Amino acid sequence: MRFRFSLKLKMSLVLAILLILTVGVLSELVLRGITLNQQQRMEEALAKQSQVAAQYVRQNYITGEERLPAATFMSQNGKRLSLYLAMLSGLPTALYDASGKETGSSLTIPSLPDYSDTLEYALKGSIAYQTAGDSVVYFAPIRSDDGGVLGVLRMHYSTGRELHFVKEIRDLFRTAGLIVLAAGFLIGYGYFYRLAAVISKLRRASREIREGHYLKRTPVRRRDELGDLGNDIYYMSGSIEANIAGMQEEQRKLELAIRKLQELERQQKQFIGNISHEFKTPLTAIRAYIDLLGMYRDDPKLTEEAIDSMDKESERLYEMVDKVLHLAELEKYDFEHQAEPVALDELLLDLSGRMRGKAAKFDLTIETILKPSVVWADRENLIHIFINLLDNAIKYNLPGGRIVIRTEADEDGQVIVTLEDTGIGIPAEARDKIFEPFFTVNKDRARRSGGTGLGLSLVKQLTEAQGGVIGLFPAAGGGTVFRITFPMFRNEA
Fold first, then answer.
1. Are strands 365-369 and 402-409 parallel, antiparallel or unpaired?
2. Among 149, 146, 162, 137, which Cα is nearest to 37's?
3. How far apart are CA 19 and CA 9, in angstroms?
4. Phi-psi category of 147—alpha, beta or left, where left has phi over 0 and alpha has psi -120 to 50?
5. Domain residue limits, the chain
6. CA angle 319, 324, 328 (to 5 degrees)
7. Which of 1, 154, 289, 447 is deepest in the core (most CB within 10 A)?
8. Homologous superfamily of the 7-169 domain (CATH)
9. Cα dihedral sign for 472, 475, 479, 482?
10. Which of 102, 168, 167, 156 is nearest to 132 (CA)?
């Protein structure tokens, strides 16, 4: 998870960090100066003390009653001289002979750190010192008159007071640094708060534009560069909104046109393919019988069968052409409807009476349960719709079956017509395609019964042209139920 810091917090932290860096660098320089000054003063003090102590040792060596060898002198007088020098300088002191052997010390500590390296350096005639805890151990050679090394002087200089002083100064700078950090952060936060708030408003405005919520007014009102930026964002929002609205409208129109063209192309290809196939079937049958008649002219039975079959196929072809022309007329000219109030119950009663003869031929009965209802529609179109539905109910029914027609009005001002048959029914997988042109559930049965696959497509288009809706449902005991809904006619007068 990535942590996110606000701009005002970042800018405040930057200011505080700059201040603390300034205090830190300043304190480091001051502390280094103090340390160097302390070191210089210490070296000067120890150099002076060592010179006095070396001079005193040389004087004792020279003014002795008898001139002893240097090693013997240092061995015999080292203890006395170291105690005296410690008392004189106020510093713990020890003496070594020229071989590096300790000959006397004012310290009572039985064991000391290893000073052999530093002592070796002093025995060669150079001043050397090393730090041990809060003390500086200073080694200075004691030279004889002939320039040789008589011995080595060791002094312990305590740096505790200087270290304590440096610690106090460092603590003081730390306290000052914390105060500067807190004050800098608070001052920076307060100073940058308004600036960050304005930037946050501009950011929110840009996010709203990105999400499609365009600005109704400028996000900030200031007389500076941020105010100019706010005005530019506001004008940009208006331009983007107008451009996107125009692009969306053009895209919508283009997508609609593409869909219509694709659907039109698909329907055209399907229509041409279907009509070519459907026209070819009856023409092929007619052509076959013509060929047979040409071969067997004297066969009366074949002649009778050929005339009967060619009559059926020509009737089927005529019906197909008629419905194709009707469909084409609907598609091309949107069909001018002569709408008028139509008593639907009376119309259905008349149509069912017309079709009872054909139904009786197939051992079928037609029942009507009609309630008075008036719709606003084209009478001829309604006749086409219900004649087609009744004809299908007869063609695809079973001997001894029945057809029931019902009408009723609902509370929403709709007239519902239900046409139910007890026929072979329509499989569930074919119900979505039943209203497509040239679609038939059973091709063989459709040809035997004279079906073209255009009737229900015509019914659907004529129903929708009247402002109605048609739906197909399975019957409870087998068969098919067509439910057609039309707006009820209301005489406002």
1. parallel
2. 162
3. 15
4. left
5. 7-169, 246-334, 337-487
6. 150
7. 154
8. PAS domain (3.30.450.20)
9. negative
10. 156
Question: Is 337-487 a CATH 3.30.565.10 domain?
Answer: yes
Contacts of 285 (CB under 8 A, 6+ apart): 309, 310, 313
3-class DSSP state for residue 222? coil
| Conformation bin of residue 386: beta by default, left when phi > 0, alpha when psi is -120 to 50 | alpha
**What is the per-residue pLDDT across 29-50, written as a single tens digit (0 to 9) for each?**
888 888 888 888 888 888 888 8
Instruction: Tokens for 106, please give them.
Output: 């004012």
Looking at 1.10.600.10, 1.10.287.130, 1.10.443.10, 3.40.5.50, the CATH number of the domain 246-334 comes to 1.10.287.130
Residues facing 156 on adjacent strands: 137
Tell me the C-alpha distance between 389 and 209, whole Å.
56
pLDDT computed for residue 493 by the predictor: 34
pLDDT tens readout for residues 238-252: 888 788 888 888 888
How confident is the model at residue 369, as a pLDDT? Answer: 92
The C-alpha atoms of residue 57 and residue 95 are separated, in whole angstroms, by 10
Joined together, the tokens standing for residue 173 give 């700078």
Q: Tell me, what's the pLDDT at 437?
A: 65
Residue 374's contacts (CB-CB under 8 Å, 6 or more residues apart) are 341, 342, 343, 344, 488, 489
Q: Which two tokens stand for residue 85?
A: 């020098």
pLDDT tens digits for 187-198?
Answer: 777 777 777 777
For the entire predicted model, the pTM comes to 0.40
